[in-house]
Amino acid sequence: MEIYFFTIFFLGFFALLEVNLKDVKRSEVLMNTLKFLSFIILVSQMGFRWETGSDWNAYLDHYESFRNEYRWIGYPNQMELGYDFFAHIFYKYAYGYSIFLFVNALIFYLLIFKTLDFFSKYFFITLLVFYCLFMGNLGTNRQLLALALGLYSLTFLFKKQYTYYFLLIFVGYFFHATSLIFIFFFFINRNIKGHFLLALLLISIVIGYSPIPIYIFGLAGGISAEASKKAELYVKAAEKETAVLSIFGLLKRLFFLFVFYIARNKLQEKIPQYNLIFNGYFLGILFYFIFSKSLLVMISRGSLYFNAMEPILMGFLLLLVEDKKKRMILMIPLLIIAIIDFNQSIGAYKDLFDPYKGIFYNVNYRRLMY
Predict the structure, then answer these.
(1) Is the separation of the CB atoms in 131 and 7 below 8 Å?
(2) Is-contact 286 207, C-beta < 8 A?
(3) Dihedral angle computed from the Cα positions of residues 170, 171, 175 and 178, in that order, rounded to the nearest 10 degrees
(4) How far apart are CA 275 and CA 268, in angstroms?
């Protein structure tokens, strides 16, 4: 766990430096230096891993299957077309899987950093919470790339550059079909009244107890052959699901929904992007209730995109406190929450993450992958 704690420590330290800056503009060189160091640490950790993270065997087998394939479309081990093409090009011209993973990490964090630079007001606490919240998704190559593309598309949505917004979602779709969820953000970039939010919450609970989610999800499979195959697998898996959702996770979501809503009146005046991010988080709550009784896999896969709003909103909360000492005090619970998020994120498959193994670190460690 030392690699992860090293990263959390440094991101936390950078966050403390940031909230203590007297003049952010005059400290721009320092901030850019710290961002560059953070970028190097995170890209190296994600890109140089080996037998660490979920879905390792599936993605490695997919990449190595190009040894006997001279085409990137219409072969047995096919995934989404965009990812197939991406992997095929690398296998053909670079070969090494570690090079491929490194470029994956480079693209992912480049887009994430650009997105957080645009939306976040306190970059490093937002980055730290993001890192901890999504560590358990390390290894889901396609969806992480789709997530990064989707999040970056929101910067263009807010600037009303809709061509780039829809283009990035379209590109993300060819890496993971669930990225189409980002289209919902087009309709929520506005101030939604509290009574309407409450009505939507109650409606989502009612829908969650009905057969509607299974029916609609089955229809969604008609988008493409790949989506149809995924929909069929998810629906079949739903028939066998016996997992119980975390009560802590639900209570945490509802608690922060209340906090973010209470803070909305003050923060939307200071932060023009607040409503877009808050509504995205709220949409994730609706998503949670709609699928909690039928398609748990949609909560783990689909809610990924909405959960990314949480780190940004947490960073916004620091703007409520003008006094530096009080901001430092507020940082303590945020850091604790980040560490709890990290433990929960990898908790289901902790043996796949701990210890961290990379091409330069713990090389001789043998892990049973599954």
Answers:
(1) yes
(2) no
(3) -30
(4) 7
Q: pTM for this one?
A: 0.90
Q: Is 361 helix (H, G, I), strand (E, B) or coil?
A: coil
pLDDT digits (tens, 9 = 90+) for 218-246: 665 555 455 555 555 555 554 444 444 56
Q: What is the pLDDT of residues 283-316, one digit of tens each?
A: 999 988 888 776 666 676 678 899 999 999 999 9
Burial 35-44 (b: 16+ CB within 10 A, else e): beebbebbbb
The neighbour count for residue 102, using CB atoms within 10 Å, is 19
Q: Which tokens is 11 given? A: 């991101």
Q: Which residues pair with 49 in a beta bridge?
A: 358
**Euclidean distance between CA atoms 212 and 188, whole angstroms:** 23
Q: Are 350 and 53 in contact (CB under 8 A)?
A: no
Asked whether 149 and 168 are in contact (CB, 8 A), the reply is yes
Q: What radius of gyration, in Å, describes the C-alpha atoms of the chain?
A: 21
**In the numeric block, which tokens belong to residue 174?**
């060819």
Cα–Cα distance measured from residue 52 to residue 301, given in angstroms and rounded to the nearest whole number? 20
Task: Give bridge partners of residue 358 from the DSSP assignment.
Answer: 49
